[in-house]
Amino acid sequence: MEKFEKAKQLRALRKYGKKVQTEVLHMRQREKAHTMNAIKKYLKGFSDKPDSLEGVPAECGAKARTKSQQMSKGTNAKQ
After folding, report:
1. Contact between residue 35 and residue 52 where contact means Cβ atoms under 8 Å apart
2. What pTM did the predictor assign?
3. Nearest to 27 by CA among 19, 15, 16
């Protein structure tokens, strides 16, 4: 009888572990989707810098550089 109870307990633990694992995976996916949406809105200019972009420098945005800065020649460019 002890083997049966021990096997039953192991099955229950495996089910619990798998449930926790899937919950964590879904939570990460939701967090990533939220962050990506915030980044897209920021890059399109619909919102100010969101909380999820605290560590990202300001120049990472698509609209951070002006047209003159984009077209300027580098130091090694031919003149």
Report:
1. yes
2. 0.52
3. 19
